[in-house]
Write a structure and sequence with these properties.
This protein is α+β, with helices and mostly antiparallel strands. The chain has 5 helices and 6 strands, in the order ββββββααααα. Helices cover 32% and strands 21% of the residues.
Amino acid sequence: MRIEEAVANNRRKGFELKVGKEVLFFPYARLRVQPSAQNRVEEVRPDPELGYEGFTYSLEDGSEDTVHVDAVLEYNQDPDYMRELLLHNLTVEVRKQLEESELSRREVIRRLGTSPSQFYRLIDEANRTKSFGQLFDLLHILGCEVEVKVGGRGFRSGTRRTRRKAVGG
């Protein structure tokens, strides 16, 4: 996801970032290098070195830091990002279970009823086109019990999205 615009909002004590058609908030409290009343944000800009997938800010004392868009999406509980994060974590667990399993990969592929190339796409952490069902099938073959737990997260202050029209358009 590309950050189109980044603005410091000292009154709200955070950054407002235009990502796609949305404006997302990211609080100063989540930063490693935090601004203060005596050391305010001097500049904030989308970072071209990160392919505009992050922003860099600098303070009056010259210190600076960079924040990746993933931190902003996670803070705002973006549904697409949270799904991809869950898929990634589940894939990491599948790979761990594969290493601990006594089954050969050839046997796992046979039991899945799939091709080797599809199997390796399934265990590729960077592949985002797989389904949870495929990973659950694989975990079942590996002798794992999968338990899905649904519960309330509770309200987190400051995680709401701010919807505004794009500046200048």
